[in-house]
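Re-run with default settings, no changes from the original entry. Doing this only to confirm the output is reproducible before filing.
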Amino acid sequence: MADLVVWRPEFFGTKPEMIIKGGQIVSSSNKKSVVLDKDAQLLGTCGKSPCANSVLFISKASYEIGATNTYGICKHVEPIRDCRSLNRTQHMYPINFSPRIAYSSSTAKNILNYTEPETNQSKQLLPIKEDIKNQGSIQSLIGQSNCQHKNSLTCLIMKTLSYKKLLDKIIKRSKMLEKEKFLGDKLAQLLVYDVLFGMGVRGKFKSAIKRNYDNLVEACDYYMNRYQVDKRDDLLKIFDEKQAAHTSTKPKYIFINQLILKKKEILQKLMDDSFEMVEYDRKSESYRKTNDQFKELIDSLGNNQFIRDNHVKNLIIFKHDASINKNYSLFNEGHFLQIDKSSCLVPLALDPEPESHVIDGASAPGNKTILLANILKNTGLIHAFDIDEKRVKLMQSNIKQHHVTNVRLKCMDFLQTEYLKYDRVSHIMLDVPCSGSGMTNRLKFGDTELENTKDENRLWKLEALQRRMLVHAMSFPNVKKIVYSTCSIHPEEDENVVRYALKNCDDRFKLVNLFPDKWSYGRGICLDDVDKNELHLDYCIRTSFESNYTNGFFIASFELNQNDDLNQEMETSQNFE
């Protein structure tokens, strides 16, 4: 058996390019290298050369006890390690290159070449439609990727999605995919945007773009003439206006992290950098009970203006296209955290006292955990669990950047926790895995195929998982309060799960009326009198872009039932106004 066999991708498994045994080249398809190979073989077999040009792998146990010292082996010895963690999907590169055979009439010869397929790398860099629908948001997928330039990649993908309709028109008119079928629709969109409107294509796909560049430019010029514009940037503005007619953009919500500096100091730094805080009557009924006037206030902000939120104390709001971004110093120093307002409501609903022991059952990427640490003032202990290793690493970096010191992070399934080991835990925050149907960043690019879709089979599986997680949280012996939340608008993942948990907890828990006098925008859906008068599903809250200018969220708060009045209302958090 050969020690190392090298193939060209298009001939994998049929015609080896080179065979190496014991560190020696014993076969090569390159005629010019055969002569050199013979000299190398003669040189490699002399003296101690055979011991120096290859490595012998042995078991770790044999290596640690020095068993090879008695064997008289002169080769370099290494222990075998990490082989059990290898798997086909992550560590094996799928070879899907194929030869292209053409006949030349002028030379009467067959020409053998190969086509470049869509590689795993291109799939990882394009989490566009199926990935958004099945795995998560664009930002979270890019955060988990191995790309070194995540900000640039995010910008490129977002821009590509924004101008998808224009790019499809240009690609169709240029007939690019008829010649380069291996690219696929999504990769072609990305490359065309980059070459016509971005920084230009580099790397392995440059040749495909070069072959079609003239046709792409001609197609782009056609649409510039059609829409009567002189510059390509003006063509993009045309489609910006078309898209603005049926899409809405959420404002930038930024949470002020006070674990190092006080809010006044942070706001002062912000205003010293030419940002202006716009004052308004935050206690006015028109701003608190209805959201129309509040939306108008946000839309009227300038690029360097911001306001304080009308509910969450440490939350400030910028217009969606404001000049502030994550490269700003207060982000890099961990004093700012960009997080949607609806996500802020989850830890505020839990509202643990300082020194409490809390469980965050599905914690990554850690934004809500950082808010919990602020409520606890970095005291007590937060047990944070997440099953995804990549997301856990991302969360480690996130909490470190934001100066959180009271988190014990574990890469494990919350369902596998032994509740008796956490007898000091009094609060549990459970932001469960869900369909993400309420996330506006998955719907705002005019991709109507993603809007209002409902995968019944997937929802059934998610609901089963969510039920198990909530019932498991209720099994912890000393837990007093549980907050269950999803970023979903589907009742299957929301009221159905809460209804199931209440009917299967032996009256141990009851629902708490969340923010009763201060949140009138959306409440849990009651199907009958039992839901309203016995289970009190209207105690839950819902958020949506239409009513709150936020993502769609569902939040339910459970409290240990001490046989007191079921209509007891939640004590308002000091962080909620």
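The first strand starts at residue 4 and ends at 6. The chain has 24 helices and 20 strands.
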